[in-house]
Predict the 3D structure of the following.
Amino acid sequence: MATTSITIRMDEELKKQAETLFDEIGMNMTTAFTIFAKAAVRQQKIPFELAADPFYSDINQARLRRAAKEMDAGKWTVHELIEDNDD
């Protein structure tokens, strides 16, 4: 089977982290992406669930804007941080 090259652009730190992970499980970047591509073709979908980060949802962003307005208006309370190791 003939092979071909592809170019993928990604954040440098993400690339380093991915290479470290793949190395720890005994594969290189090419093998990892090949496994991903084969699974996608076989399943005819992205082989994992994709979901939006709920932090960026419209509802949460509206809540954060309201909270920021209340803080700007002086309507806020300082809460003590609860640590796991507190007695």
